[in-house]
Amino acid sequence: MRLIRSLIAAALLVASATPAFADATVFIGTTNTPSNRAAKGFSFGAGFLVVAFEFEYSDTSESELDRAPSLRTGMGNVLLQTPVFIHGFQPYFTTGGGVFHESLGTLSETSFGANTGGGVKIALAGPIRARVDYRLFRLKGEPLYDTVHRVYAGLNINF
After folding, report:
1. Residue 128: which of 154, 91, 155 has the closest Cα?
2. pTM to 2 decimal places
3. Using one digit for the tens of pLDDT, what is the confidence trace for 107-124?
4. Which domains does the chain have, with CATH numbers?
5. What is the distance between the terminal CA atoms of the chain, rounded to a whole angstrom?
6. Of 91, 106, 117, 143, which has the maximum CB count within 10 A?
């Protein structure tokens, strides 16, 4: 009897689940720690109404003149977002972690990091959206800068 109840409960959960969605974003922006440098990257995500998961890759250029290292990050994130667009906007909060590689001249560090941030997806036309995002990265190990800020704008497509 316990097995039958468990199977019925599982079937009801599967039947009532909302369909998953996926999206992809390409972005450009700036990492401003310790000086402004170009950042570019992409992300792929999937989720349900309020909770989504994404993988993000970002590459920030080096500036030897400002003693600002290049920074590459690969992060897995959880997004908490409004279930629908509100007047064309869908705000979200995100947090996650992954790996980073920082280098400046002959100095190099690869380790783990975490990020927290948020942003908004802006409806443009059909499945096309703009995305504006802020992230605060906390880098472990011995990076030159253990706290890094990044802002970006990107083009997002929902499929």
Report:
1. 155
2. 0.85
3. 999 999 999 999 999 999
4. 18-158 (2.40.160.20)
5. 41
6. 143
